[in-house]
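EI: anyone free to look at a 72-residue chain?
SC: sure, send it
EI:
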Amino acid sequence: HDEWRYGINYGLMQDCSKDTVTFRHDPSGLALPYRKMGSFLLGNNVGGAGVHWNGWTFRFMPYDFEIQTLSK
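SC: here you go
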């Protein structure tokens, strides 16, 4: 369930329908809201945007444990 909630539904990310970020290409431009964050993901919890990346990493494969031994 955690993979669905957090990985698919972005449970730790900011909900743009409740609180959004605006963006403009230059200072004189119109500030338009982000409707879908894409790669610009903001955290929605204590600690902010850094929290949702700290616990994420690729799962080690057997080779990853052998690589130091093989490279010496």
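EI: The CA atoms of residues 7 and 13 lie 10 Å apart.
SC: 👍
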